[in-house]
Every structure is written in structure tokens, then in C-alpha cells.
Amino acid sequence: MYEFDVQLFVFWLVAIGTGLCAIATVITQNIVRSVTWLLFTLAGTSGVFFLLGADFVGAIQLLIYVGGTMVLVVFGVMLTAQGPFINMKTSGAEWAISIVAGITLFAVLCFGLGNMGMQKTAPAQLEDPQASHHAATLGMGFSGAPVGPQIAQGLTNRAHYLLPFEIVSIHLLVVLIGAAYLARAKKRKEAAK
Amino acid sequence: MDPMTPYLVLGAILFVCGVVCMATKRNAIGVLIGVELVLNGANVNFVTFSRFNADFQIEGMVFALFVIVMAAGEAAVALAIVLNFYNNHTTVDVDSAEELKG
Question: Whole-angstrom Cα distance, residue A173 to residue A171?
């Protein structure tokens, strides 16, 4: 007997919406509309993360991507959207080549999906999905405590993520300095002379 | 059907849309939007594997978080470059960035 699966229904709803928004991002010629469709795509992706049980990643996606990166992109559009740059037409030949290449790439990816032997990974469902996807586990991994399913089985050769976390923080500092350096107001030497 | 397949197909759709977006947009910010779509497709795959593969359940989310942080930094630097280019050339058309053409 067919049972109505609410989670599956919501997944298809969110996934189809996300895919259509992504396609609309590509095919619209107006850069402002493209950014708006990208906003919906990112929000839909965070919905997919929530459906996959990765609450923390979904929340971070909403905070950083939808809240932070999109504001940056919108500012970039606002500062550069002068008359001719809002609607930049792509020629028909470029569209044709790009779409053929895109469909070919998609076909290759789907062919690979069908052939990658996921029978091995499919039964490996989480033993206790409720216990292992919380932000606390991630935080323990980031602060140096070994985490993961093997710990519960007594194996301690499990990776932790303190060093990558530090590297990312240094990276963010470099990005901060680099972006401020690149975007600073330049003195015009010619104007001074 | 494998329970992972719909998620991976969604990731593939996002990835292909990003690649086509990078190829077709002439606006530099449009190219940046394509990069964001590609990174999101990769993130969907990471989180999917973290959900359905018990050996990968922490790593998938950790990688997804790193990708999100890297994307934020990349967007900041790329927009600074685009704004600088716009200040110097008064255009954001990537076809006009050809000083280095051989």
C-alpha cells in the first residue's frame, strides 16, 4: 500500500524549486534578476541541507551565503549596474555551444551516477541519525576532540579538524586584508600633478 | 532507486547551471554568480554523502562548512577585483579585459 511520505514530498518540492531557480539564474539576461534567482537558489539549497539532517550547515548557509555573500553580490551589482551593463546580451552561437556543452556535462555526470557502484554505500545508513548530526559534534571536531562513528566503537584513529579550522581563520584574515587593499580608494597621481 | 540519487542529481543540476552561467554571462558579476552555483552543487554532494555514508558523516559537513567560508572569502576578493576593474575601465564586460592577450 502506498504511503504518503511527507519528507519525500517536501524534498521534491524544494529540489524542483531549487533546480528551476538555478536554471532561471542562467537564462535571464538581466543581472539584477539573475541575482534574485540566485538568492532563491541558495535558500532552496539550505532547505535541502535541513532535509538531509544537517541543521548546522543549513543554518550557516542561510547566515553566510544568503545573508552575507548575497549582500556583497548585490552591492557589486548596485555599484556597477549602469545602463548597458544591466542587460548584456549573449549571442545565439555562444548560447548554443554553452547549452550543448552543459547538457553533455550533465549527461556524463548522470551516467557516472548510475555507474559509480553505490550499492556499497547505500546500506551504510547512520546507526543513530538523531545523535550524530548535531552542532555539538561538529564543534567538538573543530576544537580538537576526535569525533565520528569509530570513536563509539573504541577506535581512536579518527581525524579532528583543529588545524584546518586554524588555516581557514588565517585565510579569512588574509582575505580581509586583501579585499580592503584591493578596494581602497586610490590616490590619482595624475590628478595630483 | 538509490536514496542518494535525487540529491546527487540536484547537485549535478546546480553544477551544470553554474558552468553554463560562467560560460555565457558577459557581466563579471554574472561569472561570479556561476561560481557560487558550482560551489553550491559541490556542497549538496558533500552533505548528501555525510547523510548516507556512515564513514563520511562528520567530514561531509566539515567540508561543506569550509566551502561556505571559502566562498565568502572568494566573493569578497572577486568583487573587490570587479570594482577595481570597473573603476579603471568603466565597464564590467569580461570580453574587454584583454590587456594580457598574447
Answer: 5
Q: What is the pTM of this model?
A: 0.86
Distance, in Å, from the CA atom of A74 to the CA atom of A71, rounded to the nearest integer, reads: 5
ipTM of the complex: 0.92
Q: Which amino acid is at A51?
A: L
For residue B27, which phi and psi values (nearest 5 degrees)?
Answer: -80, 135
> Is a pLDDT exceeding 90 seen at residue A183?
no
Instruction: Give the burial class of B47: count Cβ atoms within 10 A of its Cβ; 0-12 exposed, 13-18 middle, 19 or more buried.
Output: buried
Q: Shortest CA distance to B60 belongs to which of B68, B51, B69?
A: B51
B contact test, residue of A9, A10, A49, A62 with most B CBs within 10 A: A49
CB atoms within 10 A of CB A62: 17
Euclidean distance between CA atoms B69 and B81, whole angstroms: 19
Say if residue A98's pLDDT is above 50.
Answer: yes
- Among A5, A26, A116, which would you mutate to test the B interface (most chain B Cβ atoms within 10 Å of its Cβ)? A26
- B27 DSSP β-pair partners: B93
Q: What is the mean pLDDT of residues A36-62?
A: 92
Which of A95, A97, A132 is nearest residue B57 as measured by Cβ atoms?
A132
